[in-house]
Every structure is written in C-alpha cells, then in structure tokens.
C-alpha cells in the first residue's frame, strides 16, 4: 500500500482536472479547493487505570454552499489534518453528485480503537462531542459514522449534544441505532450503492453481471455488504481481504460465511471455503471482472495500477486510487465508478435519516432502498451525460464536472457576503 500520495493534494488535482472542462473562474475554483474552517483539538481523557491521555482530533467544514456540512468521524492512527480536509472535500462533491441538499465535512481522532476499552472509548467520544457541540447541529453540521465508528459512537454523540444543549435533536447526527432515531437501511447503504453503481457500469458497458467475478479489498461494513449484495445479484465473489491478508477461491465462496468466519476469528484469513491465502496486493491485481476497493486511501498507486486486471472498479472506500493510478487506469480503459458516487449510499441514507428525524416520521426499509436506488441511478446517468458531452475517458473527471458545477452555481447564486 502506498503512503506517498497526500490525500488533500489528490483532491485538489481531481478538482483541477475537472475544472479544465468547466466555465468557472479560477477565483471560484480556488474557493472550492479549500475547507472553510478546520477545528483541531486535543482531548484529555482519563483511562481505566486513572492516568490521563491526550488525543488529537479534527473536524473540517469544507463547504456549506448547498446545505449543512455533512460527513463522518473516523477513529484511526492514520488520521491527519490533511486526510480530514481531503475527506471533507470529497463529501462536498459526494453530496453534490447525488444532489442532496447538504455540504461537506469530516472529522477524526488519531487513535487505534482496539487499544482501548469500551468505557474509555465512550469517554473519548463524549470528550470529542463536547468540543464539537458549538459547531454542529441539524442545520449546521451533521456528523456520521466512518472508519471504525458506528451506531454506538453516534448514540453517544447524540446523547452528549442533547444533554449539553438541553434539547432533543436526533437530526444532529446520523447513523444512529434504530431505537435512537436511526434509519432502516443505513448500515447497508454504502455497500448497497457500491453494487448499484457497479451494476449501472456493467449495463453501460454492455457487460453481464451474472457470473462476473469479483474481488473485494477490505471486509469492513462497506466491503462485506457489497460482497453479499453483489453475490445476491448473481456475480461470483472469488477473493476478499482485510488488514491481516486475503483469501481466494477461483470458483467463488459464500460472502456471508466468510463474514461469520471474520466475526469469530477477527479475519477472513483461514476461511475454510477459500483456503488459498493471498496478499492484499494480489486481491487488487487479480484477473476479475469487478474490483471493489473497500479499505483506505491510496490502496492503488501508479505502479500497482499497471498490474490491475479488472474491467470495472467500484470504489467503496474514499480515495482508494492515487491520481497517478487514476491516469493509468483511464488509459487502459478500466471503468472506475468514483468513490463520490459509488459509496454515496451512506450519506444518502444519512440524508433520509435526517429527513425522518426532522419529520418525526419513519420510513420502511423498502422505501429507503427504493429512494436510494433512484438517487444512485440518477447520479450515474449524470456521470454518463458529462462523460459523453465532454468526450472524457475518465468517469471520475466527469463526476467532478457535474458536482463542481452544482456547488459553484449555489455559491454564485447566493451572491457574495460580506
Ligand atoms: N462516512 C460516510 C462517507 O464517507 C458517510 C457520511 C455520512 O453519512 O454523512 O460517505
């Protein structure tokens, strides 16, 4: 895995690439390349043994031209100011391509959550929620889960915020448990949009998804659900990996059984029905029809991209390809459905959750999935239109052309203040 590409620089080069096809002034593009503000805070938290530890945390509010800042909070040792800034920018263009009335934000704590007990994680989360309270709110900035956070952390943040503000405001955060105001379908949403996007790409390319072979890099919430749903659509999952390594069975395996094995042992490695052990890199370069990178940024750099054999890539992770990898794959006619569309199911169902919270009226899972389907298909159609209208060879650039135009229009229509 390459550590070399700075994700914030990757974001900026993606914007520049698309800006060349847009009639938007450089001064406005400059605005769209930088966050409006970034909170950097130090949380001092008591551990179970009574000692204190300091944790650095960030929240970047990238752009609010189309609505309240929106985006997850991740807990990972690799979190940095530039990573959070990049992720918040990607959220801005993600909410724009799926055309939901939200901006972009992102947060993170530099921490390996495996090293801490549940009660320590609760105190750390509540300490961060206290720092965030003045800057979040259902009309201001709405956090959500991301890498290594989920319903449990969202419930704690909601409770801390509501306690400090002496109110009930479930729409201040999304990705909550159902009993705490969460939405049906939210947990599955990222994996679901990744496979809807892949299906649309196969249709567009006149390729058959039935029996198509699939490799999934990363078997967390997004990766394993994508594996399960693509298998249900008739494709064959032949390889999967997590941070401990990868597994491969050329005849395919049951993705749900592989997940059960991971739940029991901590990894997919050793799963009885896919005994061939391969590396994470091997998973990315297998001769498959569809590759789903579902781990972290920079999984595929320019060198590794030369060895990628998949025909279609649907990005469940944020930023899995470096700009160099992107250029190599576009040259080789690999159809990449970019992260900001492929994994937009998470934030789209977060939007549905926020709508339901505000209306105090809750939808069925069927309705959630139907509305999600429509939004992702519309996003894909907008991608194709921009791809063809501009004679582009890179679907990511086409997606940014649409998304940047929408953000710039909202900014310009509002006029300038002060
Ligand atoms: N963390 C997810 C993402 O990167 C979801 C964000 C949200 O639901 O606001 O898109």
Summarize the structure.
45% of the residues lie in helices and 17% in strands. The protein is built from 15 helices and twelve strands. Helix 7 links the parallel strand 6 and strand 7.
Structural write-up:
Among the domains are: 35-170, 3-Layer(aba) Sandwich (Rossmann fold); 189-342, Rossmann fold (3-Layer(aba) Sandwich), CATH 3.40.50.720. 45% of the residues lie in helices and 17% in strands. The chain has helices at residues 7-19, 26-31, 81-97, 118-132, 151-165, 189-204, 221-232, 255-265, 280-285, 302-305, 323-331, 339-342, 345-359, 365-389, 395-414; strands at residues 37-46, 52-63, 69-76, 104-110, 141-145, 213-217, 236-242, 245-248, 276-278, 290-293, 312-314, 335-337. The strands form two sheets. A seven-stranded mixed beta sheet has the order 9-8-7-6-10-11-12, with helices on both faces. The model has no long low-confidence stretch (mean pLDDT 97). The radius of gyration is 20 Å and the shape is globular. With 418 residues, the chain is of the alpha/beta class. Bound molecules: glutamic acid (GLU). Glutamic acid (GLU) binds next to β3 and α13.
Secondary structure topology:
Layout: H1 7-19, H2 26-31, E1 37-46, E2 52-63, E3 69-76, H3 81-97, E4 104-110, H4 118-132, E5 141-145, H5 151-165, H6 189-204, E6 213-217, H7 221-232, E7 236-242, E8 245-248, H8 255-265, E9 276-278, H9 280-285, E10 290-293, H10 302-305, E11 312-314, H11 323-331, E12 335-337, H12 339-342, H13 345-359, H14 365-389, H15 395-414
Parallel strand pairs: 3-4, 3-5, 6-7, 6-10, 10-11, 11-12
Antiparallel strand pairs: 1-2, 2-4, 7-8, 8-9
The structure holds glutamic acid (GLU).
